[in-house]
Structure formats: structure tokens, C-alpha cells
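User: For a teaching handout, I'd like to show students what a predicted protein-ligand complex looks like in C-alpha cell form. I'll give you the sequence and the SMILES for 2-acetamido-2-deoxy-beta-D-glucopyranose. Please answer with just the structure.
Assistant: Understood, here is the input followed by the structure.
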Amino acid sequence: MHFIRLVLVAVGAARLSLAVATSRSGLLQRADTQQSIYSASPPAPPAPEDITVIELPLPPVAPNNVIGSCTKVINSRGTGCIGKVTGLGSGNFLPDNKHVVASVIFTGAPAAPDPRSIYTGLQLIIVKADKTTFPNGDPWKCITCGMPPANQLGRVDLMDYPQAFSDGKRVLAGPQVIDCSPFQLSSKKCTPDVTHIYPIRWNTSPTGDGAGGSIRELRLHPEDNHLGFNSLAIGSDGSVSQAAYIGRFVFNKAPTIGTPLSARYDLSNVTALIDPQERAQIYVEGNELKINQSAIGIGELRGFSGSGQEVTYIGAPTESCNIDVYAIHLITGKIRRLTAHPEYVDPVDISPDDAWTAVMDTRGTGRQMWLSGMRGIPPIVDMVATAAISSTRNNGERRFFQPWLIDQYGDRGQYFGQQINGAGDGSPGSVNDPEWNGRADPKWSPDGTRIVYYQAQTVSPECGGINPLPCYNSTEPGGRQERMMMATLTSRKPCTRRAPVPFADVVPWGTPFVPGSTISSPRYIPGGNYTLRGQVSGTAMVEITGGADNTSIDTIAVTYFNYSDDGASILNGGERVTVTTPYGGQNEVDWFSDIVQTGATHGTKTTTPGGLHLSVNVFKNLAIFTGNLTTTLDGTVWYQPANGT
Ligand SMILES: *[C@@H]1O[C@H](CO)[C@@H](O)[C@H](O)[C@H]1NC(C)=O
Ligand SMILES: *[C@@H]1O[C@H](CO)[C@@H](O)[C@H](O)[C@H]1NC(C)=O
Ligand SMILES: *[C@@H]1O[C@H](CO)[C@@H](O)[C@H](O)[C@H]1NC(C)=O
Ligand SMILES: *[C@@H]1O[C@H](CO)[C@@H](O)[C@H](O)[C@H]1NC(C)=O
Ligand SMILES: *[C@@H]1O[C@H](CO)[C@@H](O)[C@H](O)[C@H]1NC(C)=O
Ligand SMILES: *[C@@H]1O[C@H](CO)[C@@H](O)[C@H](O)[C@H]1NC(C)=O
Ligand SMILES: *[C@@H]1O[C@H](CO)[C@@H](O)[C@H](O)[C@H]1NC(C)=O
């Protein structure tokens, strides 16, 4: 097999977009648990607060994609239509707190020379969030429709994760910057003629030539001058790995080398968010396995904290099968575990004052509990199983995400945050309709009182038939299958956003990137028998069987003897997991589990005789199971989803 370190398939903006993340070295990480859930005295959890959710307006929907189907009957102002499948990617607020940026796919425009012909394809819009309209009467405005070709040299057809700069003039959208300088995007002076699109180039060539490296999942630092991004490397053997980077934007008005040879943003002073010494989260010392709670293990970069001092990311799990988000301080390398609930989380945004976290999480849906529900299992089998584990969170295109609000101290005790759209009757189209599932990213308003997010409706084949949810027609205008929502935290007073902390280009714990260099192969633990000592009691005997090629792990077996990391619950029994990856993204997993938990929680995690066979592709997220893996916690039984649901 190929040793896929930590493969996390993240939520893309578009229905088909995918993200695969791998952590660097050995991939297991215990976050600094001292600071969060196991902390001696975190403050008492906050009481639930009042939240109202409304939908934000979008352009009208054309009945189909035929040229001219966006008639004047549908849009009397002639400012375009989108499709039922909107291509929506909602982003953040402009600094005025009154507009939200989004990308959509316009469709049905009449042919040129009709002036309406410019409303076609993927475009950036800004949407009024205060129930007002632009002077023409529309509550949205297209920023990029009808730009002269000379203003958009090197434009690419990708505008995922649109993020406005705090100058109100520019938006990062996909690997490019949309710039209306010197005008505010919301100003009527910001017209297509004065708007520019500048591509972003990451030079990876020692000579400076070529198109540069491929960058994805871009996130803007709140001080506007730096970009966080990820870059995938797919090996010739089909293995997938990824590294996260931060670099400085340098506007290059007239480049003389590298492509495109037009005005662009170059990334300089790029640092890989990788420990240069590659100290792994799980490492070998003699015959023992040790877990380093502070080792750097960034899977996929997700953004920055409100003050800009921390990078958020999906990390290698702290507890087995439990995918969480973390924040690491750019200077000190201190790690915070932002979430701990056993369910899957990935999109995250920290509030401007750093005191709150908004996430998209499967918590509350029971989606992953059969696998991840038992707390306190050290993340040992995860060294081979994380890719498969994270891929069971979706049913193909159906995500199970809802937006949640968690305080800065994270999940603890019985506190698992507050569902942002929890109030509603659950009826078709209501704000908490389970058929409407979250996408990436939720975003805080600069004044800290609102969170904007977007959702997609569950459609066939992920509803109806054997699925738990029936199919029904969208109740949205025009039958739209995506929608943009805005939550207001009504008891909060608007605050003026404090200036973010500027980043001075140096990550003391990172690895400066040198063009032409390659990221070294992941380390893995060689085959053998090891002991892992519980932090409070007991041991785990770990048998690692290496792959024939000596560059991977095939099988991990763990046997627990009175093992406890917290002294509250104790593990006995064991697990054995074998993973092969026959081709790109495909994981074939054999899982045998018979773990008994006693103490504070009485639980079992067991497989049926013959074990569970799980077959899943990280690019499709459609798991097929043979046999069962079932987790029972204090009498509550959690089953895996039926095949195809
Ligand atoms: C950033 O890059 C520039 C240009 O290569 C260089 O002069 C400067 O020293 C770098 N800054 C840091 C902090 O490394
Ligand atoms: C654990 O990781 C931290 C952060 O990289 C490092 O400073 C420390 O030396 C590591 N400890 C061990 C025992 O490897
Ligand atoms: C959904 O809409 C289509 C066409 O608009 C209609 O034919 C169909 O009967 C509707 N289905 C349901 C379940 O209402
Ligand atoms: C682990 O120990 C068992 C029992 O001594 C032995 O059969 C097995 O070969 C060892 N495994 C490895 C990978 O060394
Ligand atoms: C595999 O690794 C072991 C231990 O480092 C080494 O002795 C052995 O020669 C390696 N085998 C191959 C095929 O590289
Ligand atoms: C098992 O661990 C618990 C604490 O986790 C300890 O109190 C108990 O003495 C241990 N039992 C044995 C047999 O070691
Ligand atoms: C697996 O679980 C399902 C319920 O989800 C049950 O119907 C089925 O009988 C179980 N299979 C085995 C082999 O226990």
C-alpha cells in the first residue's frame, strides 16, 4: 500500500471540488491538551444564546442553461440569472459589515451584443446583508461581469473561498485577486472597466520560470499582506500528500520571468508549516511508542485566527477516529485543540476577537459515532486509517455539516457548543432542515455579531430510495439547490474590529521554502512490536507490520491492558486494522475491533465475526461496508450507515 499519512478530504466550495490533506511526519498528533478539554480549570461553558437566521438574496434562477433562458420576465433589470445548481461559494463580509462576497455561476444569458450577455459563467458578486439594495434595485452586484479582457489577463475559472481584504477594495477568490482599487467594491464607481483580476503565482523554480506551483484552499491573513495555502503532491504511485504554507503577497506590475507575464501577485518569503526537524507526533524510543502532544502536525491549513496570530488547520487526530480542528500560534508554535466532539469537523472560522469558533461539523447527526464515539482511544490505528475514517463522513455529495458555535476553550464536559441554526421546525426548507447541509466556510462579520454560511440541498441519489431522507423539490426561489444564510447573535453588541497583529514573515518553527526544493517523504514507524504507556494507567501493546516496500505500514494491531490517559475511563481489548490503497484515493480496510471501556463510560467498540471490510475512495466518499462495526456507549448503540446512504 501507499502510506497515505493523514488524508482528510475537505469541503470544497463547489459540489465536485475536493480537498485532500495529508499531515507531514508520521501524522499523529496530540494537541496540547493541557489547554483545552483536560485543562484543570477552564471557565464554565457559556449559556446558549439567542440566534436568528435569515437567508440572503441571490440572483434569480433561470429555468435551464439555454442561451436566452434568463428572460426579462425572470430578471427585469437584465442583471443576470443563476441556475438551480448555483455554483455558490459564499465568503466573508466586507469591512462595512453590510455586504457579503460570493461566487456564483451565471447562466441563460442572451448572446452578445445583448448587454445582458455579460452575465454568464463563474463570477464574483457582492450581496447586501442589510436588506437594502444597490441603486438599480438589485440586492446583489456582479463585480467581475463584463470586465474588459485586458483587465483580466491570466484569469482562471475558479473562485472558491472568496475572501474580501480589509481594505474593502479587493477580494481573494480562487488563486487570484479581484481588485477594484482605488474604489470600494460596494461603491458605484467600482465598475467592470476599473476592476482587475490578478493571478497569484508561487514560484517553485530556482530560475523563476514556468507557471509556479499549484496552490489550493487559499486563506487570507486578516492583515491583508499574507496568504495561507496548501499544495498537493500526488506521487507516481498514486499516494497523496499535502503541505501547508504561508507567504507574503508582493504585487508585481510587470513581471519579466515566469508565467503569466502580466501583472500578478507573487508570493515571497514562503514558509512550509513543517517542523524542519520532523519531530513526529508518534515516535519510537527503544521498544516504546511515545506520543508528543506538542509536535507540529498540520494536515490542511484552514485559515487564521481573528487577530491573525494563529493558523487554523485540520490536524492528525488526538483521539482515535476523531477528526478535529486546531490552531497553532505562528510565533510560539503553541497548539490549541479547538474541537473535541467525536464527530467530524473541518471548516472553521475564529471570531475577530479570537474568543469564539464557528465550525461546520457532523456533530448531532450521529454520522460518525459508530466509528469515533468512544473517547480516549489513542490515535494509533489512525496512522493507516485516517483517510478511510474521514471519508465515511459524507454520503457522496451529501454532507452532514451544520454550523456550530463553540467558545475559545473548546468542547468540554457536557458542553459541545451551540448549533447556530438549531432553532426551527425542521420542515422542508426551514433553517434547520436536515436536508440542507453546510459547506465551507462559515465567516464572522468584522463586528462580531453575525456569521454567514451556505448550504446545499440533499438531492438524488443521496435522498429517496434506501436513504433516510426523502427527496422533495427545493422550496427556495426558482428551486435553487444552494442558499446563503446569515445568523445574527442578537444579544451581542457590535464591536469595532481591532487591527490584526501583522505577521513579520518568519515562522520560527516552520521551514523556509526554497524554490526547487521538494518536501521530503513522510516518516513512518518501522514494523515491530512496541509498548505505549497510558498517561494514568496500563499499557497498549502495538504491533506494526510494514509493507513489503519498506516505505509504508500495512497493519496496526493494538491491545489494551487497563489503559487510561485520563484516569476516568479504562480501555481493555484491542483493534487490528489493515489498509491497502490499490489506486488513487481508494482505501480497502479490514477492521477488527473488540474494545471494552469501563469507568466513567461503559462502552464497547466491536466488529461482527470476520470483521468490517470498508471500501471507500477519498475522492468520492461513498463507503461500502461488509460486516459491521458498532459502538455502544452507556446503552446507546451507534451503527454505521447502510451501504449507499
Ligand atoms: C523576505 O524576502 C525578501 C526578498 O527575498 C528578503 O529581502 C527579506 O529578507 C525576506 N524577509 C525575511 C524576514 O526573511
Ligand atoms: C515535541 O514537539 C515539540 C514541537 O516540535 C518539540 O519542541 C519537542 O522537542 C518534541 N519532543 C520530543 C520528545 O520529540
Ligand atoms: C418537483 O417539480 C417537478 C417539476 O417542477 C414536478 O414535476 C414534480 O412533481 C415535483 N415533485 C414533487 C415531489 O413535488
Ligand atoms: C511481534 O511479536 C510477536 C510475538 O512475539 C511476533 O510473532 C511478531 O512477529 C512480532 N511482530 C513484528 C512485526 O515484529
Ligand atoms: C527495510 O528496513 C529495514 C530496517 O531499517 C532494513 O534492515 C531492510 O534492509 C529494509 N528492506 C528493504 C527492502 O529496503
Ligand atoms: C487500572 O487502572 C486504574 C486507574 O486507571 C487503577 O486504579 C487500577 O489499579 C489499575 N488496575 C490494575 C490491575 O493495574
Ligand atoms: C449489521 O447491522 C445491521 C443494522 O445496522 C443489522 O441489520 C445487521 O444484521 C448487522 N449484521 C451483522 C452481520 O450483524
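For the handout, you might add this sentence: The chain has three domains: 2-43+274-477, 55-270, 528-639.
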